[in-house]
Design goal:
single chain, five-stranded antiparallel β-sheet, 4 domains, about 290 residues
Length: about 290
């Protein structure tokens, strides 16, 4: 077993484990840690806790110290100065007519570097911009191109469900999401229904995909013939959540009726195709 403290940086939802080296950390306190970028300020999201050795990647890096009042003041100043840096840099980008959109900026804790994040349609030559910014801010300048999902993750936004986007609250990393997941779940392929505010497929399509994938294989193929307690019929549609199928059957008087049956009440001859057989590149409606 090991004692850890869980820390999170301002620009990420991912939690990192550090060795508290005997310091008692409380929730929402600040901590100073050593990173590849140098000293950084992080917030405590998991106070000192004992975890199994299998949950950590040894050796745990130790914290440098608990954040002092001076450290807290330095962090607040960095955040305040960041807003002014964004304003100045946006003006410079417009002046130089560079095809890029500035998203965010941050000072490293010790102010040895000022990092700007931007999006662009392709490669951008920003060497002249870097030289101009270095002369203005008198520190090392780092420009990093990010993608649409990173843009939303950094700035924050409300998802179509009305809650903050998952990437801004709890998703540590982006996972692969495909149109195939929407197909298996029976969702409309209209981008307004399945795309997030970043314009890409919603991350939450991944959450229940394991259940839908397993249940999908158990269901009868739409259009196939199945035996039901009321006779043979043709499958009209499936409900994966309830594990039921709507079946069109012929009644004794020659008329047709559509009834719903649970998979346990049907004799299924032909099940749905393997998910891997589904096309993953069908055009999405505009």
């Amino acid at each position: 077993m090991a004692i850890i403290v869980g820390l999170k940086y301002r620009t990420t939802a991912k939690v990192y484990y550090f060795d508290p080296i005997g310091i008692d950390f409380q929730l929402d306190e600040g901590a100073i840690v050593e990173t590849p970028r140098g000293l950084e300020y992080a917030s405590v999201v998991i106070p000192n806790k004992e975890v199994d050795d299998s949950e950590i990647v040894p050796p745990l890096k130790p914290v440098v110290r608990k954040a002092t009042k001076e450290d807290d003041a330095q962090m607040r100043k960095n955040l305040q100065d960041k807003d002014e840096a964004l304003k100045i840099t946006r003006a410079k980008i417009a002046e130089m007519e560079i095809p890029m959109k500035l998203v965010d900026a941050e000072y490293t804790f010790d102010r040895s570097k000022l990092i700007f994040y931007f999006t662009a349609d392709g490669r951008v030559d920003f060497r002249e911009l870097v030289r101009a910014l270095a002369s203005i801010f008198k520190t090392r300048i780092d420009l990093r191109q990010i993608y649409e999902r990173d843009d939303i993750k950094m700035r924050g936004a409300l998802a179509p469900c009305g809650r903050p986007c998952c990437c801004t609250t709890h998703l540590p990393d982006f996972e692969k999401v495909s149109i195939k997941m929407a197909k298996v779940q029976g969702l409309s392929l209209n981008p307004q229904k399945i795309n997030g505010v970043c314009g890409r497929l919603m991350c939450c399509l991944k959450y229940e995909n394991d259940y839908y994938s397993q249940t999908f294989k158990l269901m009868p193929k739409v259009g196939s013939r199945v035996q039901t307690p009321d006779g043979e019929g043709s499958v009209e549609s499936n409900n994966l959540l309830e594990q039921t199928a709507r079946v069109k059957i012929m009644l004794k008087d020659g008329s047709f009726d559509v009834k719903t049956y649970h998979i346990e009440d049907m004799h299924i001859g032909e099940r749905q195709s393997e998910i891997d057989d589904l096309p993953d590149d069908d055009p999405v409606e505009g």
